[in-house]
């Protein structure tokens, strides 16, 4: 293959990629520029190819460009976030990986691969700004407007094991140690975290919560530690959650979703009590109590490499492990009654009792969505009631397949294979829908089936 053919091959290859690709030769002259890159930068390949890098992008100071670092200093720059203006003056943010290409000890080219994260970036900026404003306006306890804050009085349950957990949590509020909460979805982790904060001496200070799974990995660091207006990155000066929550409590939900590298940075912050904004060089002292949560067993998360052992030990000074509702069914009656009272007020109804049959049905179920699911079932039942004072079985809208006592997973003799497989499928889908909070696209994604297929199956099994 001659050089021309080879160049064509590379061109075709990089055109296939979703990421932007820009390649310069050793003199810094553009030799490849794919259309993904052109879309991001709003440039034509013709404006870039055959021209020197710093002629096309004059605003980059030579010493600071990653292309320059690769060509002259032979340095690789990984997942570096850059914010810059394209030729129309529109600010764009990309995540880049830039490498020198070295042949026989000589750098002959530099390749930059770039992902456009402009939208995600502006989303995270807006989020931080909103929180900043909310913090300025609201009293510190109500850090997030519209979200009520909980105390231990809102935690129902008299089950022996559960009460022991509540008592541990109450003790935790009198000190400053990190808290690690493990509990399945809907077991009340947020409830516990807020109660610990509100009963302790930090209660007059902010309580901030961030779900680590809800934010793209590349932005989480800036969100937590803040960003600095760098001459080069173009990022704005903004305090992160650590600074915003100073003196108060920061709840880090699903900490196992935090990238491994960031987990070690977090560990350092916890040990040294100061943070450094992304792109900054100043150490800023912070005093923040951390409450971290996971919804899978920590040992399993560590075995899977999702949770750093050293971070876990550092956070796990106080360990709160909330048992799932199916392991404290003796509390179902009490909880159902409490939720019924609450719903009566909310919907202006007068349902004062639960029938025996309804209670039996409630107790037979295994609640993959835990207390949240029970609360929803009762809320729905009360809202559907007309003038009756008794909550009867017919008001309960809950999956039937799992209240026959045994979960459908068990195969019993004489069962038709189709029926058995169907019941399996139904349970898997119902569980996944709960996990995804009813979001069909999300559930379809985790089940690796098409959205339409899932919709069809939801209809078939009557899952809502
Ligand atoms: N012991 C409890 N007493 C009263 N309400 C409870 C209890 N546990 C949970 N709840 C209610 O269940 C709902 C879910 O609770 P919460 O948001 O704290 O759960 P979570 O463990 O954080 O769930 P997720 O993992 O999905 O974030 C809330 O409405 C909460 O008030
Ligand atoms: Mg939660």
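Q: What amino acid sequence fits the structure above?
A:
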């Amino acid at each position: 293959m001659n050089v021309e053919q080879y160049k064509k091959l590379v061109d075709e290859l990089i055109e296939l990629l979703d990421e932007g690709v820009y390649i310069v030769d050793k003199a810094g002259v553009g030799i490849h520029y794919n259309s993904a890159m052109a879309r991001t930068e709003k440039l034509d390949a013709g404006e870039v190819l055959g021209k020197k890098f710093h002629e096309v992008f004059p605003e980059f100071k030579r010493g600071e460009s990653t292309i320059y670092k690769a060509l002259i200093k032979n340095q690789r720059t990984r997942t570096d976030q850059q914010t810059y203006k394209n030729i129309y003056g529109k600010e764009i943010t990309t995540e880049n990986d830039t490498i020198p290409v070295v042949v026989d000890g000589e750098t002959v080219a530099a390749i930059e691969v770039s992902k456009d994260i402009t939208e995600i970036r502006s989303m995270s900026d807006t989020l931080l700004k909103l929180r900043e404003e909310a913090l300025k306006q609201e009293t510190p306890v109500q850090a997030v407007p519209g979200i009520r804050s909980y105390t231990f009085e809102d935690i129902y349950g008299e089950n022996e094991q559960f009460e022991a957990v509540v008592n541990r949590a109450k003790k935790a509020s009198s000190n400053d140690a990190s808290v690690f909460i493990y509990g399945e979805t809907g077991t009340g982790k947020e409830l516990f975290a807020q109660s610990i904060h509100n009963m302790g001496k930090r209660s007059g200070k902010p309580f901030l919560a961030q779900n680590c799974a809800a934010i793209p990995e590349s932005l989480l660091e800036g969100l937590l530690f803040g960003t600095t207006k760098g001459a080069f990155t173009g990022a704005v000066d903004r305090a992160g959650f650590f600074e915003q929550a100073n003196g108060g409590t920061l709840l880090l939900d699903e900490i196992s979703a935090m990238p491994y590298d960031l987990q070690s940075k977090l560990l350092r912050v916890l040990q040294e009590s100061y943070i450094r904004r992304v792109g900054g060089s100043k150490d800023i002292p912070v005093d923040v109590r951390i409450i971290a949560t996971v919804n899978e067993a920590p040992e399993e998360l560590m075995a899977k490499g999702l949770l750093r052992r050293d971070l876990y030990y550092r956070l796990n000074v106080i360990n709160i492990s909330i048992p799932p509702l199916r392991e404290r069914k003796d509390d179902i009656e009490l909880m159902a009654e409490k939720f019924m009272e609450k719903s009566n007020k909310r919907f202006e109804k007068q349902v004062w009792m639960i029938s025996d049959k309804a209670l039996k049905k409630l107790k037979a179920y295994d609640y993959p969505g835990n207390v949240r699911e029970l609360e929803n079932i009762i809320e729905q039942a009360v809202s559907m009631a007309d003038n009756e004072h008794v909550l009867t079985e017919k008001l309960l809208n809950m999956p039937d397949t799992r209240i026959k006592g045994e979960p459908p997973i068990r195969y019993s003799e004489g069962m038709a294979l189709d029926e058995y497989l169907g019941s399996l499928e139904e349970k898997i889908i119902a569980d996944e829908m709960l996990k995804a909070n009813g979001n069909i696209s999300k559930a379809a994604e985790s089940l690796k089936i098409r959205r339409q297929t899932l919709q069809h199956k939801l209809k078939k099994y009557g899952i809502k």
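Q: And what stands out in the fold?
A: Residues 139-143, 401-406 have pLDDT under 50 and may be disordered.
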